[in-house]
Every structure is written in C-alpha cells, then in structure tokens.
Amino acid sequence: MLRTLKTDCKILARKAGVWSLRQYLGFALKTTRWTFRVNEQAWPLLTSQNGQTAVVAFWHEILPLTPALWWWAEPQNPHIRLRVLISRNRDGRMIADVVAPWRIWSIAGSSDSKGKNKGGAAALRRMRASLRNATLVAITPDGPRGPRRQAQQGTLALAKLAGKPIVLVGATCTGIRLKTWDRMIFPLPFGHGTMACAPPIDMRRHNQEENSSSETFTQQLEHALDNMMHLAQQPSNMSSPAGYSQEKVALSPLSLMPSRVWQVAASVLSPALPFFLRWRQTKGKEIPARVREKMGFSSLPRCSGNLVWFHAASVGETVSILPLVAACLAQKADLQVLVTTGTVTAARLLAQRVVNPRVVHQFMPLDVPRWGRRFLDYWQPKAAVFTESELWPNMLGLCHTRNVPVMLVNGRMSASSFKGWQRMGGVARRMLERFAWVSARSDEDAQRLQQLGATKLLETGDLKTAAPPLPVDKAELARLKECLAGRRILAAVSTHPGEEQQIAQAAKLIRRDYPDVLVLVIPRHPERGADLSVMLGYVPRRGAGQIPTEDDLLWVCDTLGELGLFFRLAPCVFIGNSLPGVLGGGGGHNPFEPARLGCAIASGPLVQNFTDAFQHMAAGVTIVSNAQELAVWARDMFANPFKRQQLGENVQHIATANADLPERLAKHILAQIW
Q: Measured between alpha carbons, how far is 155 from 139 in angstroms, rounded to an integer?
C-alpha cells in the first residue's frame, strides 16, 4: 500500500513538473522578440512546401529554443508535421511529454553503443519512414550525452538512408546557460532571440564528391553548425548574408483568437446542451439509450488496430461515403472503421446497409472541446474523414493538436454558407487550413473553399456519382409489382412541408387523363408519415403495412432504406424540397440516386444545394414550378415511353461517370497513415 502511494505521488509530481515546464517554456518563447535569418533554399524545406522534407539538425544546447522555429513554420503550412529524435532515458521522456501538446512528436532512441541496444536502429527506420511520408525529422548531432558540439554519425546515416537534404539551424536568445554537459540555453521571458537556418546540404551531391568520407563530412557539419550559431549571435540590426531573408516575428498566440472565441462559446453553452438533447429525445430525434454519445461517451468497445474515422451528418452524406468506406476496407485488410452520424435516420440506414464487423457506428459528439477530447481519447483514430459541409472548428482543432490528419471529401460550400463563413473569416481559415487535403464536390465548391482558407485541394468529383445503384429486396419488389400491376406510377421523393399539397393537386390533374395513376409520396423525414397521411386525406401508409387499392391516388411511403425499391417501381421521379412555397426555402436533394436507375427526373427550381449536379443533368432533368407544370410533365412521360427512356438513359450516363472515384480517394486517405 505504501509503495503504491509513493508511486502515485511520483506520477503526480512528474505530471506537475511537466505541466509547469511547458507553461514556462511556452510563455518565455512566445514573449521573446524573434528574428529569423533563413536561407532562401532552406525555407521551402523548413515549411514542407509541396510535401518536401529534410533532416533538421542543431546542437543539443539550443533544444529548448527550437519550438520557436516550429511556431514560425507551422502557420506557413498547417499540414506540416515534425518528429524529433529524443533519448529513451528519463530526461528524454520528460522532454517528449513537454512538447507533445505543441504537435512536436518524438521518436525515442539514441545511438547503440558498448553493446547496449538504445533503440538506434529502430529509431533510424522510423525516421526514414517519416521523411518519406512528408514529415520533417529533427536531430541533435551531439546528443544526448555529448561531447558538446561534436557530431556523431547518426545525422549522416539518416540523410543518406532517406535520400533527403540536411538543414542546419543555429539559435540564441536572452537566457541563462545551465551547468550541463552541453551548456544548454534556458530562455527568459520578454527577451530577444535569433534563429539562423543554413542552405540545405544535398546528400546526392555529397555522395558524388571524391572526398566524401564520413569523417570529412562530420567535420564539415560541425563547422557549418558553429557558423550558424555565430550568425544567430550577430545583432538583429545587422543585415543577413546574401541569399538569406530576415524577418522579425512575434509568436504570440493571438492569431488563434477566432478559434479560441468559438471554443469558449461552446464551453459556456455546454451546461445547457444536455437539456437540448433531452428536448430532442421528446421529438424522436435522439435515441434515449445512446444520447450520451453526443457528449463523447462511447457505447461500444474500441476495436483493435488502425482505425479511420468517417463522419457524415445525415442520410445523403452517409450514402455517399459507403463506397469510400468499402474501398478503404478492401485496400487494407487490417483496417477498422468508425462511422459517426448526426441523425437517427442516418444511423438506421447505416445499420441496414453495412453488416461488417470491421465497421462500427457512434453518434457525433456536439462541438464542445471537453466532449471532443473524451471522444478522441477513447477512439484514438489514425485519420479522420469529414463529408460535404461538416465543418466543426473545435473538433478539427482537437484533431490538429493530436496530429490526426483530417480530410474533407465531397466538400460542399453553398452560396449562403459561403457568405456566412465569410463573416467569420478567421475561424474559417484556421479550420480549413488544417485539412490535410480537400476533395470538393465541384469546381465551384472548390473555389469557395479555397477562398475561405483551404490550401491543398485534390481533383474535384462528386461521390454521389460514384455510388452503386441503391439496393432492393427482390422478393418485395416482385410482390409489389404484382400488387400494383397495370398502374402508372410517379414517385415524389424527399418531400418537405409546403409542397406535398402541391403534389397532391398535381396527382388529381394527372388522374383526369390517367385514372390508373398512383403517386408515391416519400417524405424526407419518415417520422412525418402518420401526420402526412392524415393531411392528405387518410391515404394508406407503407409504414403501417398498408397497400393502396385501385381507388387510392396517393400512397405515403414512410419507411427508411427503401428508395431502391420505389425507384424501381416508378419510372418517373419528382425530387422534393424544390418547389416554391416549401418550408425552409428549399434547396433540392440528390438527383443521382434515381438517375443511376434510369428514372426520368423532374424537380422544382429551388436546387441551390445541388446546383452543380443539376447543371450536369440539365439535358435530362425537367424543371417545374408548380402543380400544373408537374402534371403536364408526368402526362408527357406516360404518353411517350421512348422519350422517357431516352431521358432516363441520359441522366444514368452522367450519374455513373465517376465509378473509380472511391478507389482514388481511398488511396489518398490511407497514404496519410501508412
């Protein structure tokens, strides 16, 4: 018992020491007025432009100062990643814990000597892999035990093995010299400091030189590092040598203020959010047994191995990422996938479509920092993939601090959302620049995302054009075809309040010429089915197991996951949330799902959420503005089967144009973690 208590006290004391040192060091470095003298050839390497990497080398004595170099480089390229070789001893582990929250990740190991395995060979392999995967690697040639300013062979061996250049760094600042073997510089607050970065050493050129022995190179390395230390010690008002840029930089955290404001606002509101979730339960929008998932608590055990997290808000986004999830699972046999959604309907759809032990589902926690940390602590994803317009500043910031690469697929930015984010330009920029890459749905979306701050964009392409046709229960399809034999069928899909009365009016107009017509009214939110049936005159509901009779004009199809069934029953489809008068202002819905099954398609004019998709399908989609025009279109389709077939084939060709997009994006996703 006493031994356990002593151990606990030591752990607490160590945590307190690490925290105190981190706070002091961060304060001292960020209040120092820094001058950076950076060689023009070294700048793109130190900021990892276009994925370039290098071995960054500096004397052990300036190790406490080097986070300042990282804080200078990171804002210039938010995708930059850094790993530092740190000894496996107690001091080394403490240094690693101090700098880890600053996204400076460590590789443990030092040179093997005297027959002792200090992890040098394993560390060398990890550093080589990091360099080859667009990650900078920092190393102290004389560390961790010296002698002071005498380079060992590790820097040369690493650079040769990885085939990467070496960038040498010198630094000094207002501080005190510790009485350690390296006479380490310990910074003092509110002082002056200078970083000097030399031109890169090209290892290919070095290997081609005649006198390129390791001993000669080591002497040259020592001399060059000493020169950088001398350059850093020169007064800041002195001009830099030719080929060097000089800038004075404040490393104040004020640049993070827009995100900090969002973070504080979410934290202040968090006590009220459980009551909000409880209210949603009363409306059927939350599952009582799983509502704590919205606060970051897990309800399932974490699967072992590498886990990639996909997030899709609702049904449409969930459907779009299923081929991408399948492609990732096919390319990596040991991969595990976590899918989060925001809505109950999306969760139910996922349960119907995916039966795979390597895929688990949870609800996305609300964007509260404490809840997000709880979620990430438990699931520990290796990478995160967000979908369409799912942009959550706090969660993205948490992933960023943990060095979890985040990607955006099918990126969507409507005109109204673009205007809204422009009013919070700082938040948008800090959020979007943290994405490892963005794959936009269209060129227009890509342009808006880039204007808001996205820095690395892949080829555009809509995942909704890459999904396979919606599945169907063949036995149920055969049964319904028999029950509805001889009837002309029109499906009004994803309808919203304010337009269903217009659809009913159109159905009555169609019936004048085609008494056998049946209109399927498929609400976007199936829970509205019962009320919708009453509003339309107590028409039959599929959700209640009712089949329309010959006298029924309308059939409310309020089930989930059966669109594949309805699109195969109805050769003509009207896409809802698009007619003038719809509540919420409209915006349209995904036209690709009926298009993939060759349906003739009509829509209202309010399609601003899918502008690009409807523009691509302009030759095959008819726009109607009211009940009368919808009725005219439907009568034309029923009267001209060949025309209807041609229109269906046109949109089907467009909707299947990007069949290989999931495989291409899956490779980009997996490249972030392997």
A: 7
Peptide bond preceding 200 in cis form (omega within 30 of 0): no
Backbone φ and ψ for 608, nearest 5 degrees, come out as -65, -20
Nearest to residue 84, comparing CAs of 72, 93, 73?
93
CA pair distance 551, 531, nearest whole angstrom: 21
What is the DSSP track for 72-103?
Answer: HHGGG-TT--EEEEE-SSHHHHHHHHHHGGGT
Q: What does 162-177 look like in DSSP terms, one character per residue?
A: HT--EEEEEEEESEEE
Ramachandran sector of residue 173 (left: φ over 0; alpha: ψ -120 to 50; beta: rest) = beta
Exposure on the CB side of residue 619, measured as CA atoms within 13 A: 9
Mapped onto helix, strand or coil, the DSSP state of residue 590 is coil
Task: Name the helix (H) or strand (E) containing 57.
Answer: strand 55-57
Strands 166-173 and 175-177: unpaired
Contacts of 382 (CB under 8 A, 6+ apart): 306, 307, 308, 404, 672, 673
How many beta carbons lie within 10 A of that of residue 95, not counting itself?
A: 21
Mean pLDDT of 402-413: 88
- Strand ordering across the sheet containing 82-86: 104-108, 82-86, 136-139, 55-57, 166-173, 192-197, 33-39, 244-250
What residues are paired with 522 via a beta bridge? 493
Q: Please provide residue 470's backbone torsions phi and psi, each rounded to the nearest 5 degrees.
A: -60, 145
DSSP 2: H
pLDDT in the model for residue 205: 61
Helix-, strand-, coil-residue percentages of the chain, each rounded to 5: 50, 15, 35
pLDDT at position 549 is 94
Which two tokens mark 351?
Answer: 């349960």
Residues facing 446 on adjacent strands: none
SS3 357: coil
Res. 395: pLDDT tops 60: yes
Answer positive or negative: Cα dihedral of 631, 634, 639, 640.
positive
Q: How far apart are CA 573 and CA 604, in angstroms?
A: 12
Cross-strand bridge partners of residue 492: 521, 574
Note whether 294 and 325 are within 8 A (CB): no
pTM of the model: 0.60
Residue 422: phi, psi to the nearest 5?
-65, -30
- DSSP result, 405-450: -EEEEEE---HHHHHHHHTTHHHHHHHHTTEEEEEESSHHHHHHHH
Among residues of the chain, what percentage have pLDDT more than 70?
Answer: 94
**β 383-387/307-312 pair status:** parallel
Measured CA angle at 309 (ends 669, 366), to 5 deg:
135
